[in-house]
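Hey, can you fold this one?
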Amino acid sequence: MSSSTLNTRLDLHERYRLRPIHLLGIGGTSEVTLVEGQGGERYALKRLLGQYRSQREWRDSILLEGVHLSMVRSNRVIRCHQVLTVPIPESLIKISVDEDPSAQPLSARQEVALLMDYISGVHLRAILKVAQRHTLPFSHDEIASMIWDMFRGLKALHRAKRGKSKPCPIAHGDLSPTNIMIREDGSAILIDLSSASSVLSTDNILRRPGKLAYLSPGQQRGEEEGVEGDLYALACIWIELVTGSLLKVDHKSISWRQFHEAGWPIQWAKIVYGLLSPLPQVRAKMIVYLTREALWGGSRGEHSLRQKHARSSLRHRVKASLKSRAD
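Sure. Predicted structure:
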């Protein structure tokens, strides 16, 4: 670790009186650390990795992620409490401004970090691995509970607003099991908006690409699909939860009846088939059919009871995953 990186690290913690506890994870461009506030409250602190802090485009990208999160009010999307800034070392400012002499905004001279909720739980990918290893398939109610939580999170992103009334839909851009957390109470929550896009995005802000296996045919060709791309990814995850593996489905060679004949409830079969359409407009129309009734069937009171039982089962899966990781 260089001395300038160490100094910036200390400045950030000391300025905001945050006590680092331990590193939670490292991604392609950022790291997340568990920190503790003055009152003992715990947060997840997201920062760019050292090699990206001198690049204005990446600092702009994490700033945009904080802006996007500030526009969403949902317990199914991770919350950003505050966008933190500290002056970056003079050597890095010189590099940034020399590369772009017009670089005068905040992000050109400040390191940006996000102070977010600390989510106690595990990634859905870890849950899937344990389920596969021990041949413990998910029940229909468990799948319905997770899909419903994910859908509510996506709906909150897709209905985001600037200010009080100006619509500003946010596309997650990288919906996949590694960006979905299953909390200790069994509920699911969307995390990591580093690939998100909206009308606030600009060409000079860098975004990490979504995972290839969850991209629609159009996205794989380089086409921007916005929120409809998230719906395709949701269908891919749905298939993975049901089958235990990620299956690439050729929409032209199947029908919803084949899903149903494979044991899927008829409503699930029709919805997933629609969400897998290569046409974004078809996917968009499927939203109205994705309801609690379609997921669980029966009465609303029955839905709540079945979801309660499903979350209890998922809590046990979270514990098993944490134990497996510890071993």
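The two ends are 30 Å apart (CA to CA). Let me know if you want another pass with a different chain boundary.
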